[in-house]
Design a protein that fits this description.
Blueprint: H1 2-30, H2 44-53, E1 57-62, E2 68-72, H3 75-89, H4 106-141, H5 146-160, H6 163-177, H7 194-227, H8 230-237, H9 242-279, H10 285-294, H11 298-326
Antiparallel strand pairs: 1-2
Helix pairs in contact: 1-11, 4-5, 4-7, 4-9, 5-7, 6-7, 6-9, 7-9, 9-10, 9-11, 10-11
Length: 335
């Protein structure tokens, strides 16, 4: 019962926070100039009529030099229309200035670009978690020995280097010099073929190397502390072998901190993939996000901002709830 009430409370706070962030983003965007520049071969009147149809402007009238003058629709009215379209029609807007996707529904473009982003983040997590945990466990068990020193140097190097530098190094060494991987991701939409998976690997490695260092650092620090606890000595005196004591007691206590760090690292990787996708020409939502800013396409920017905000808020709730499942002694929401 305590857990149910806690989850409901956190979901309510998450929705409130999400609403506040979306409102702030929408308001700040609408304070910017409205892009009304027509592309080559495009009728300027069609541009302003499209914006009028989306509820951005009103009272269109001819101006000077073939331009048009208009009045802005009040922001609160625009926001109400925006929310109404999403709730009633599932309409997140259309591309108005993003030339490649002009007049296309932003939701359809978003969903078509989502699989590569999700896959490279899942692959990087599947590779990074076992390697990072393994290195962290080894460093904790061999604390202050040469294995621990080597792993610590490896961790410091990976944490110190930005993912952009790691990506450039991987591109130069494994893609350009050795030729093991292509420089850019395959353009095929069949994401579960060897060709596409092979072309994703450089970007996956660029994302997961930093995560490996993070997992190893968390695991080493927490497991080293748990191994020196008095309950470990008690477990050994009861007849458990060292391996049994570590597996049954030390690892479980360590996971209270380690597991939430895995989720937080995943969110961090998802945010970091914005630049990595651009560097490896991955046709994911990261490129859409950056280009939506360049092209000043506000509907694209709003949808993608909502996506990244929702992912971060959801991960925060999952992290908090996970404490109660990992350690039954923790009762979330209990007094």
């Amino acid at each position: 019962m305590y857990m149910f009430k806690y989850v409901m409370k956190r979901l309510g706070l998450m929705l409130l926070t999400f609403f506040i962030i979306v409102t702030m983003c929408f308001t700040l965007i609408k304070l910017l100039p409205i892009p009304t520049n027509a592309l080559p071969g495009q009728d300027p009147y069609v541009v302003v009529k499209t914006l009028e149809g989306r509820g951005w402007i009103t009272n269109i009238r001819p101006g000077l030099n073939g331009t048009y003058e208009y009045d802005r629709v009040p922001i609160l009215i625009q926001y109400g229309n925006y929310i109404k379209r999403i709730v009633t029609d599932g309409d997140f807007g259309i591309a108005t200035t993003y030339g490649e996707y002009m007049n296309m529904p932003v939701w359809d473009v978003f969903t078509s670009h989502l699989p590569p982003t999700i896959l490279i983040n899942i692959y990087s997590t599947l590779i990074g978690v076992p390697i990072g945990l393994g290195l962290g466990i080894l460093a904790a068990l061999k604390k202050n020995k040469w294995q621990d020193q080597v792993i610590n140097v490896f961790i410091i190097l990976l944490i110190s280097l930005p993912s952009i530098v790691l990506a450039l190094g991987l591109q130069y060494l494994f893609c350009f010099k050795l030729g093991w991987f292509p420089l850019t991701m395959s353009t095929s939409d069949d994401y579960f073929t060897w060709e596409v998976f092979h072309s994703m690997l450089p970007a996956v490695f660029a994302l997961c190397l930093g995560s490996i260092a993070g997992y190893a650092r968390y695991t080493r620090a927490e497991l080293s502390e748990v191994l020196t606890g008095e309950f470990m000595l008690l477990a050994r005196t009861k007849g458990l072998t060292k391996g049994q004591a570590i597996y049954r007691h030390a690892m479980r206590n360590s996971m209270v901190v380690i597991f939430p760090s895995i989720l937080s690292e995943f969110v961090g990787v998802l945010s970091g993939s914005l630049i990595i996708e651009k560097m490896f020409t991955i046709n994911g939502v990261g490129g859409l996000y950056l280009n939506s800013i360049i092209y000043q396409d506000y509907d694209f920017f709003m949808l993608l901002s909502c996506f990244y905000t929702l992912v971060s808020l959801t991960a925060t709730i999952v992290i908090d709830i996970s404490y109660g499942f990992i350690d039954p002694r923790i009762r979330m929401g209990a007094k």
